[in-house]
Amino acid sequence: xxxxxxxxxxxxxxxxxxxxxxxxxxxxxxxxxxxxxxxxxxxxxxxxxxxxxxxxxxxxxxxxxxxxxxxxxxxxxxxxxxxxxxxxxxxxxxxxxxxxxxxxxxxxxxxxxxxxxxxxxxxxxxxxxxxxxxxxxxxxxxxxxxxxxxxxxxxxxxxxxxxxxxxxxxxxxxxxxxxxxxxxxxxxxxxxxxxxxxxxxxxxxxxxxxxxxxxxxxxxxxxxxxxxxxxxxxxxxxxxxxxxxxxxxxxxxxxxxxxx
Amino acid sequence: xxxxxxxxxxxxxxxxxxxxxxxxxxxxxxxxxxxxxxxxxxxxxxxxxxxxxxxxxxxxxxxxxxxxxxxxxxxxxxxxxxxxxxxxxxxxxxxxxxxxxxxxxxxxxxxxxxxxxxxxxxxxxxxxxxxxx
Lengths: 260, 133
Fold this sequence. Notes:
Largest sheet of chain A: 5 strands, mixed
Number of strands of chain B: 8
Number of strands of chain A: 7
Strand order of the largest sheet of chain A: 2-4-5-7-6
Oligomer: heterodimer
Shape of chain A: elongated
Protein backbone atom coordinates (compact mmCIF):
# COMPACT_ATOMS: atom_id res chain seq x y z
CA UNK A 1 0.00 0.00 0.00
CA UNK A 2 2.80 2.38 1.01
CA UNK A 3 4.62 1.45 -2.18
CA UNK A 4 1.56 2.19 -4.26
CA UNK A 5 1.18 5.57 -2.56
CA UNK A 6 4.84 6.37 -3.12
CA UNK A 7 4.57 5.39 -6.78
CA UNK A 8 1.49 7.61 -7.18
CA UNK A 9 3.14 10.57 -5.41
CA UNK A 10 6.30 10.11 -7.43
CA UNK A 11 4.39 9.97 -10.72
CA UNK A 12 2.30 13.07 -9.96
CA UNK A 13 5.30 15.04 -8.66
CA UNK A 14 7.25 14.20 -11.82
CA UNK A 15 4.36 15.30 -14.05
CA UNK A 16 4.25 18.63 -12.25
CA UNK A 17 8.03 19.05 -12.40
CA UNK A 18 8.04 18.35 -16.14
CA UNK A 19 5.53 21.13 -16.80
CA UNK A 20 7.30 23.57 -14.45
CA UNK A 21 10.53 22.96 -16.42
CA UNK A 22 8.65 23.59 -19.67
CA UNK A 23 7.40 26.90 -18.28
CA UNK A 24 10.94 27.82 -17.26
CA UNK A 25 11.89 27.38 -20.93
CA UNK A 26 8.87 29.50 -21.87
CA UNK A 27 7.18 26.49 -23.50
CA UNK A 28 3.52 26.53 -22.67
CA UNK A 29 1.95 23.78 -24.82
CA UNK A 30 1.75 21.15 -22.08
CA UNK A 31 -0.62 21.26 -19.13
CA UNK A 32 -0.84 18.92 -16.16
CA UNK A 33 -3.79 16.52 -16.23
CA UNK A 34 -6.21 17.09 -13.32
CA UNK A 35 -7.59 13.81 -11.98
CA UNK A 36 -10.98 13.11 -10.41
CA UNK A 37 -9.33 12.60 -7.01
CA UNK A 38 -9.39 16.32 -6.12
CA UNK A 39 -6.36 15.77 -3.91
CA UNK A 40 -3.42 18.03 -3.11
CA UNK A 41 -1.63 17.02 -6.34
CA UNK A 42 -4.65 18.17 -8.34
CA UNK A 43 -4.66 21.45 -6.45
CA UNK A 44 -0.94 22.03 -7.11
CA UNK A 45 -1.42 20.99 -10.76
CA UNK A 46 -4.33 23.40 -11.22
CA UNK A 47 -2.26 26.19 -9.64
CA UNK A 48 0.75 25.44 -11.86
CA UNK A 49 -1.47 25.28 -14.96
CA UNK A 50 -3.04 28.63 -14.15
CA UNK A 51 0.28 30.28 -13.30
CA UNK A 52 1.55 28.97 -16.65
CA UNK A 53 -1.37 30.63 -18.44
CA UNK A 54 -0.62 33.92 -16.68
CA UNK A 55 3.10 33.66 -17.44
CA UNK A 56 2.38 32.92 -21.10
CA UNK A 57 0.08 35.91 -21.34
CA UNK A 58 2.63 38.21 -19.64
CA UNK A 59 5.41 36.93 -21.90
CA UNK A 60 3.36 37.63 -25.02
CA UNK A 61 2.41 41.08 -23.78
CA UNK A 62 6.05 41.85 -22.91
CA UNK A 63 7.18 40.80 -26.39
CA UNK A 64 4.50 43.02 -27.94
CA UNK A 65 5.64 45.96 -25.82
CA UNK A 66 9.29 45.40 -26.77
CA UNK A 67 8.30 45.30 -30.42
CA UNK A 68 6.33 48.53 -29.99
CA UNK A 69 9.23 50.24 -28.23
CA UNK A 70 11.61 49.22 -31.03
CA UNK A 71 9.16 50.63 -33.53
CA UNK A 72 8.96 53.91 -31.60
CA UNK A 73 12.76 54.29 -31.44
CA UNK A 74 12.94 53.50 -35.17
CA UNK A 75 10.34 56.14 -35.98
CA UNK A 76 11.92 58.78 -33.72
CA UNK A 77 15.27 58.15 -35.40
CA UNK A 78 13.66 58.38 -38.87
CA UNK A 79 11.88 61.60 -37.96
CA UNK A 80 15.12 63.12 -36.66
CA UNK A 81 16.78 62.07 -39.91
CA UNK A 82 14.01 63.78 -41.89
CA UNK A 83 14.58 67.01 -39.93
CA UNK A 84 18.28 66.69 -40.69
CA UNK A 85 17.53 66.19 -44.41
CA UNK A 86 15.24 69.21 -44.41
CA UNK A 87 18.10 71.30 -43.02
CA UNK A 88 20.29 69.91 -45.80
CA UNK A 89 17.77 70.95 -48.43
CA UNK A 90 17.48 74.40 -46.87
CA UNK A 91 21.23 74.89 -47.04
CA UNK A 92 21.69 73.54 -50.57
CA UNK A 93 21.69 76.87 -52.36
CA UNK A 94 23.10 78.95 -49.54
CA UNK A 95 26.54 80.43 -50.02
CA UNK A 96 26.84 82.05 -46.62
CA UNK A 97 29.55 80.20 -44.65
CA UNK A 98 28.11 81.28 -41.30
CA UNK A 99 24.68 79.94 -42.22
CA UNK A 100 26.17 76.66 -43.48
CA UNK A 101 28.13 76.25 -40.23
CA UNK A 102 24.97 76.85 -38.25
CA UNK A 103 23.14 74.18 -40.26
CA UNK A 104 26.00 71.72 -39.75
CA UNK A 105 25.98 72.33 -35.99
CA UNK A 106 22.24 71.82 -35.81
CA UNK A 107 22.51 68.65 -37.89
CA UNK A 108 25.19 67.27 -35.56
CA UNK A 109 23.04 67.98 -32.51
CA UNK A 110 20.12 66.16 -34.13
CA UNK A 111 22.38 63.31 -35.18
CA UNK A 112 23.78 62.86 -31.66
CA UNK A 113 20.21 62.19 -30.47
CA UNK A 114 19.22 60.10 -33.51
CA UNK A 115 22.23 57.85 -32.92
CA UNK A 116 20.91 56.97 -29.44
CA UNK A 117 17.52 55.93 -30.81
CA UNK A 118 19.22 53.93 -33.55
CA UNK A 119 21.41 52.11 -31.01
CA UNK A 120 18.38 51.39 -28.87
CA UNK A 121 16.42 49.65 -31.59
CA UNK A 122 19.27 47.66 -33.07
CA UNK A 123 20.48 46.27 -29.75
CA UNK A 124 18.71 43.65 -27.67
CA UNK A 125 18.49 45.84 -24.60
CA UNK A 126 15.91 48.48 -25.30
CA UNK A 127 16.65 50.66 -22.30
CA UNK A 128 20.43 50.96 -22.04
CA UNK A 129 23.20 52.14 -24.29
CA UNK A 130 26.84 51.15 -24.13
CA UNK A 131 28.66 54.43 -23.41
CA UNK A 132 31.88 53.37 -25.16
CA UNK A 133 30.12 52.35 -28.39
CA UNK A 134 28.00 55.48 -28.42
CA UNK A 135 30.76 58.02 -27.77
CA UNK A 136 33.12 56.48 -30.34
CA UNK A 137 30.38 56.39 -32.99
CA UNK A 138 29.35 59.94 -32.13
CA UNK A 139 32.90 61.32 -32.37
CA UNK A 140 33.40 59.55 -35.69
CA UNK A 141 30.19 61.00 -37.04
CA UNK A 142 31.00 64.55 -35.88
CA UNK A 143 34.47 64.23 -37.41
CA UNK A 144 32.97 63.13 -40.75
CA UNK A 145 30.82 66.26 -40.82
CA UNK A 146 33.94 68.45 -40.47
CA UNK A 147 36.21 66.33 -42.60
CA UNK A 148 38.06 67.79 -45.55
CA UNK A 149 40.85 66.25 -47.63
CA UNK A 150 43.62 68.03 -45.75
CA UNK A 151 42.22 67.06 -42.35
CA UNK A 152 44.29 64.70 -40.20
CA UNK A 153 42.90 64.62 -36.71
CA UNK A 154 43.21 61.51 -34.54
CA UNK A 155 40.91 60.40 -31.76
CA UNK A 156 42.12 58.61 -28.64
CA UNK A 157 39.63 56.92 -26.36
CA UNK A 158 39.84 55.71 -22.80
CA UNK A 159 36.25 54.77 -22.11
CA UNK A 160 35.13 52.11 -19.65
CA UNK A 161 33.45 49.51 -21.88
CA UNK A 162 31.34 48.18 -19.04
CA UNK A 163 29.36 51.40 -18.60
CA UNK A 164 25.75 51.56 -19.77
CA UNK A 165 23.44 54.59 -19.61
CA UNK A 166 19.73 55.04 -19.97
CA UNK A 167 18.46 57.45 -22.61
CA UNK A 168 17.74 60.21 -20.04
CA UNK A 169 21.44 60.52 -19.19
CA UNK A 170 22.86 59.50 -22.56
CA UNK A 171 21.23 62.38 -24.46
CA UNK A 172 22.78 65.21 -22.38
CA UNK A 173 26.16 63.43 -22.30
CA UNK A 174 25.99 62.97 -26.09
CA UNK A 175 25.12 66.60 -26.70
CA UNK A 176 27.94 67.78 -24.41
CA UNK A 177 30.47 65.53 -26.19
CA UNK A 178 29.16 66.78 -29.53
CA UNK A 179 29.68 70.44 -28.54
CA UNK A 180 33.16 69.88 -27.09
CA UNK A 181 34.36 67.85 -30.10
CA UNK A 182 32.82 70.34 -32.52
CA UNK A 183 34.64 73.22 -30.75
CA UNK A 184 37.94 71.37 -31.01
CA UNK A 185 37.40 70.54 -34.68
CA UNK A 186 36.41 74.15 -35.41
CA UNK A 187 38.99 76.12 -33.44
CA UNK A 188 41.82 73.97 -32.03
CA UNK A 189 43.71 73.00 -35.17
CA UNK A 190 44.34 75.79 -37.68
CA UNK A 191 46.63 73.41 -39.57
CA UNK A 192 43.98 70.65 -39.34
CA UNK A 193 46.35 68.27 -37.57
CA UNK A 194 46.10 67.11 -33.98
CA UNK A 195 44.73 64.71 -31.41
CA UNK A 196 41.47 64.74 -29.48
CA UNK A 197 41.28 62.50 -26.40
CA UNK A 198 38.05 61.41 -24.80
CA UNK A 199 37.82 59.46 -21.58
CA UNK A 200 34.85 58.30 -19.55
CA UNK A 201 34.97 56.39 -16.29
CA UNK A 202 33.25 55.83 -13.00
CA UNK A 203 35.00 56.67 -9.78
CA UNK A 204 33.11 55.77 -6.61
CA UNK A 205 29.63 57.09 -7.36
CA UNK A 206 30.72 59.77 -9.81
CA UNK A 207 31.02 59.61 -13.57
CA UNK A 208 33.94 61.52 -15.06
CA UNK A 209 33.96 62.69 -18.66
CA UNK A 210 37.07 64.38 -19.96
CA UNK A 211 37.71 65.63 -23.47
CA UNK A 212 40.81 67.50 -24.49
CA UNK A 213 42.72 68.41 -27.59
CA UNK A 214 46.36 69.32 -28.16
CA UNK A 215 45.46 72.34 -30.21
CA UNK A 216 45.93 76.09 -29.77
CA UNK A 217 43.85 76.28 -26.58
CA UNK A 218 41.04 78.59 -25.57
CA UNK A 219 41.76 82.34 -25.99
CA UNK A 220 42.78 84.01 -22.70
CA UNK A 221 39.96 86.55 -22.85
CA UNK A 222 37.33 83.84 -23.42
CA UNK A 223 35.15 83.27 -20.35
CA UNK A 224 33.30 80.01 -20.90
CA UNK A 225 30.85 80.81 -18.08
CA UNK A 226 29.57 84.01 -19.65
CA UNK A 227 30.05 83.09 -23.30
CA UNK A 228 27.08 83.84 -25.55
CA UNK A 229 27.88 80.97 -27.93
CA UNK A 230 25.04 78.45 -28.15
CA UNK A 231 27.53 75.58 -27.88
CA UNK A 232 28.98 76.77 -24.54
CA UNK A 233 25.52 77.62 -23.21
CA UNK A 234 24.38 74.11 -24.09
CA UNK A 235 27.40 72.56 -22.34
CA UNK A 236 26.63 74.51 -19.15
CA UNK A 237 22.89 73.92 -19.28
CA UNK A 238 23.26 70.17 -19.85
CA UNK A 239 25.97 69.87 -17.16
CA UNK A 240 23.53 71.44 -14.70
CA UNK A 241 20.84 69.02 -15.89
CA UNK A 242 23.18 66.17 -14.94
CA UNK A 243 23.94 67.83 -11.57
CA UNK A 244 27.50 67.95 -12.75
CA UNK A 245 30.54 70.10 -12.10
CA UNK A 246 32.32 71.42 -15.17
CA UNK A 247 35.98 72.40 -15.24
CA UNK A 248 37.53 74.02 -18.28
CA UNK A 249 41.28 74.30 -18.61
CA UNK A 250 43.36 75.78 -21.41
CA UNK A 251 46.88 74.58 -20.66
CA UNK A 252 48.26 72.60 -23.60
CA UNK A 253 45.06 72.78 -25.61
CA UNK A 254 41.45 72.89 -24.46
CA UNK A 255 40.44 70.54 -21.68
CA UNK A 256 36.94 69.90 -20.38
CA UNK A 257 36.24 67.79 -17.31
CA UNK A 258 32.72 67.01 -16.22
CA UNK A 259 31.99 65.16 -12.96
CA UNK A 260 28.40 64.11 -12.33
CA UNK B 1 -20.05 20.39 4.26
CA UNK B 2 -23.56 21.79 3.73
CA UNK B 3 -24.51 21.55 0.06
CA UNK B 4 -26.44 24.42 -1.47
CA UNK B 5 -29.87 23.17 -2.51
CA UNK B 6 -30.66 23.98 -6.12
CA UNK B 7 -34.27 25.17 -6.54
CA UNK B 8 -36.41 23.98 -9.43
CA UNK B 9 -36.56 27.41 -11.06
CA UNK B 10 -32.73 27.64 -11.30
CA UNK B 11 -31.29 28.47 -14.70
CA UNK B 12 -29.15 25.60 -15.91
CA UNK B 13 -26.22 26.14 -18.27
CA UNK B 14 -23.34 23.80 -19.16
CA UNK B 15 -21.31 24.21 -15.97
CA UNK B 16 -23.59 26.12 -13.59
CA UNK B 17 -26.97 26.39 -11.94
CA UNK B 18 -27.98 29.99 -11.22
CA UNK B 19 -30.92 31.47 -9.30
CA UNK B 20 -31.94 34.42 -7.15
CA UNK B 21 -32.72 33.71 -3.49
CA UNK B 22 -35.54 35.32 -1.55
CA UNK B 23 -32.88 37.25 0.37
CA UNK B 24 -31.97 39.15 -2.81
CA UNK B 25 -28.63 37.34 -3.23
CA UNK B 26 -28.01 35.68 -6.60
CA UNK B 27 -26.42 32.24 -6.30
CA UNK B 28 -24.46 30.37 -8.88
CA UNK B 29 -23.34 26.81 -8.22
CA UNK B 30 -20.77 25.00 -10.28
CA UNK B 31 -21.50 21.45 -11.44
CA UNK B 32 -19.08 18.89 -9.96
CA UNK B 33 -16.10 18.09 -12.22
CA UNK B 34 -16.62 21.16 -14.42
CA UNK B 35 -13.80 22.37 -16.62
CA UNK B 36 -14.82 25.98 -17.13
CA UNK B 37 -13.82 27.59 -20.42
CA UNK B 38 -14.65 31.14 -21.50
CA UNK B 39 -17.71 29.93 -23.45
CA UNK B 40 -19.17 28.34 -20.32
CA UNK B 41 -18.23 31.41 -18.26
CA UNK B 42 -20.09 33.62 -20.76
CA UNK B 43 -23.13 31.34 -20.57
CA UNK B 44 -23.11 31.82 -16.82
CA UNK B 45 -22.66 35.59 -17.05
CA UNK B 46 -25.70 35.73 -19.32
CA UNK B 47 -27.65 33.63 -16.84
CA UNK B 48 -26.61 35.90 -13.94
CA UNK B 49 -27.45 39.05 -15.91
CA UNK B 50 -30.90 37.69 -16.82
CA UNK B 51 -31.78 37.96 -13.13
CA UNK B 52 -31.26 41.72 -13.14
CA UNK B 53 -34.52 43.56 -12.59
CA UNK B 54 -33.29 47.12 -12.19
CA UNK B 55 -31.37 46.62 -8.94
CA UNK B 56 -27.78 45.42 -8.76
CA UNK B 57 -27.21 42.40 -6.52
CA UNK B 58 -24.47 40.51 -4.64
CA UNK B 59 -23.40 37.14 -6.02
CA UNK B 60 -22.61 33.96 -4.14
CA UNK B 61 -20.44 31.58 -6.16
CA UNK B 62 -20.31 28.01 -4.94
CA UNK B 63 -17.13 26.71 -6.56
CA UNK B 64 -17.03 23.40 -4.66
CA UNK B 65 -16.36 20.51 -7.07
CA UNK B 66 -14.70 22.61 -9.80
CA UNK B 67 -11.98 20.84 -11.80
CA UNK B 68 -10.39 23.70 -13.73
CA UNK B 69 -10.96 27.19 -15.12
CA UNK B 70 -9.07 28.71 -18.06
CA UNK B 71 -7.48 32.15 -17.94
CA UNK B 72 -10.04 33.62 -20.35
CA UNK B 73 -12.82 32.26 -18.16
CA UNK B 74 -11.25 33.79 -15.06
CA UNK B 75 -10.99 37.12 -16.87
CA UNK B 76 -14.65 36.85 -17.86
CA UNK B 77 -15.59 36.53 -14.19
CA UNK B 78 -13.54 39.56 -13.12
CA UNK B 79 -16.05 41.76 -15.07
CA UNK B 80 -13.22 44.25 -15.62
CA UNK B 81 -13.92 46.69 -18.44
CA UNK B 82 -17.54 45.53 -18.68
CA UNK B 83 -20.81 46.73 -17.19
CA UNK B 84 -21.79 44.46 -14.33
CA UNK B 85 -25.01 43.99 -12.43
CA UNK B 86 -23.17 42.53 -9.46
CA UNK B 87 -22.08 44.39 -6.32
CA UNK B 88 -19.87 41.82 -4.54
CA UNK B 89 -18.67 38.23 -4.89
CA UNK B 90 -18.53 35.66 -2.08
CA UNK B 91 -16.80 32.51 -3.32
CA UNK B 92 -17.32 29.29 -1.41
CA UNK B 93 -14.29 27.01 -1.50
CA UNK B 94 -13.52 23.80 0.35
CA UNK B 95 -11.17 21.37 -1.44
CA UNK B 96 -7.49 22.23 -2.03
CA UNK B 97 -8.27 22.64 -5.74
CA UNK B 98 -11.14 25.09 -5.26
CA UNK B 99 -9.00 26.99 -2.73
CA UNK B 100 -6.26 27.41 -5.34
CA UNK B 101 -8.70 28.63 -8.01
CA UNK B 102 -10.44 30.89 -5.48
CA UNK B 103 -7.18 32.51 -4.50
CA UNK B 104 -6.52 33.52 -8.11
CA UNK B 105 -9.59 35.74 -7.74
CA UNK B 106 -7.97 37.44 -4.76
CA UNK B 107 -4.92 38.59 -6.73
CA UNK B 108 -4.03 37.76 -10.32
CA UNK B 109 -7.64 37.71 -11.56
CA UNK B 110 -9.12 40.14 -9.04
CA UNK B 111 -12.72 41.01 -9.85
CA UNK B 112 -13.87 44.63 -10.21
CA UNK B 113 -16.22 44.26 -7.23
CA UNK B 114 -15.37 43.42 -3.57
CA UNK B 115 -14.58 39.70 -3.33
CA UNK B 116 -14.00 37.32 -0.44
CA UNK B 117 -13.45 33.58 -0.02
CA UNK B 118 -15.48 31.51 2.48
CA UNK B 119 -15.51 27.86 3.45
CA UNK B 120 -19.22 27.87 4.33
CA UNK B 121 -22.39 29.37 2.96
CA UNK B 122 -23.62 30.86 6.25
CA UNK B 123 -20.62 33.16 6.59
CA UNK B 124 -20.72 34.02 2.90
CA UNK B 125 -24.39 35.05 3.05
CA UNK B 126 -23.73 37.07 6.21
CA UNK B 127 -21.01 39.01 4.42
CA UNK B 128 -23.11 39.58 1.26
CA UNK B 129 -26.31 40.74 3.01
CA UNK B 130 -25.28 44.39 3.47
CA UNK B 131 -24.88 44.59 -0.33
CA UNK B 132 -28.56 43.73 -0.95
CA UNK B 133 -30.39 46.86 -2.12
